[in-house]
Amino acid sequence: MVEDLPDAKLKDGSTMQVKRVVPPDDEWGERLLHFMYVRRSDYTNCNWHHNCVRVLAGDYADVSHDVFFSGLLDGEIVGTSWYGAPKDTLDVATYGRIITREDHRRKGIASALCALPVEEFKSLGGKAMYLGTGRTSPARLIYERLGFEHYNFIEGAGTIMRLVFSGDVEEFEAEYYQPGCRTTIRPLHGGDLARAEVLFNLPLWAVKDSSQSVMYNTPFEGQFFDILTHLEKPTESGMALVTEDAKRMMGMAYAAQAPGWQVGQTHVRYMEFLVHPNYTEYGGELLLSVEEGSEAEIFVVRVAQADEDKVAIIEQAGYQQVGRLPKAVRSEQAESDILIYQKM
Asked: Is the pTM of this model over 0.70?
């Protein structure tokens, strides 16, 4: 579906047409992909791009609410923005794909297009939006003006910014992860991006995903697309722990392929998982559900000793400690041994 929005007046006096695109749309899907990725060869082969192909084709339309905004001058696309949210809740969203054509920068194109996802998602009753960017990216100034605040940051690895629409972030997280809700376990899907982003960017763990090298405050966003791509293989398994009422994700787990799996480790998987501390008691069941859906014979977990809640879940699921790597994970503020657990 393509909808014309009010034109935007730019700094140089020109008028930019604005389109709102909801996948699937064959014509605009191709146009947007060509603008965002095909003409940017450094983006074309990453899973962020491959996921966008699937989004624009409508492959996730039953579980993910995705909206693209496109700016045009003389009929040519000069800028884009986007947000994606779980279709069944529309409570949290990922925001991004902010691209301006190089020869049209500094005209106010990004400023005009960046405001649209925020305004629309807020009008739908959204609670919070998250985005990933470089700490020194010029676009961050636009995000800050819209109310986004820096959350996770590692020098050279970017930052996560978040915008909570009502109240402060502490109140939002306390309400979002309130204990005592009934839960269910179901397969991970393409609508879980924002939910995973909220969970993985909480500063609660030293080792969040060892296979993806997500440690301490490492920003987490595009890694979800890597996980999703991995889970599209019929031999792999990934599950989400969600509340039955509000459908909020309290945990997720998947079985990652071991390094060198093509030449002798096809029977081994690395179990990667996070469960919010308020729901640790359901973690063991979550891991077991992943094991049941995997063809692996041996499961290995690498966990920080400091992450006591994760250690409790592993032992609850029947894993046995088989090794230790002293002081193997470190941030500017802390360090921890990595414990290695196995289950056969």
From this structure: yes
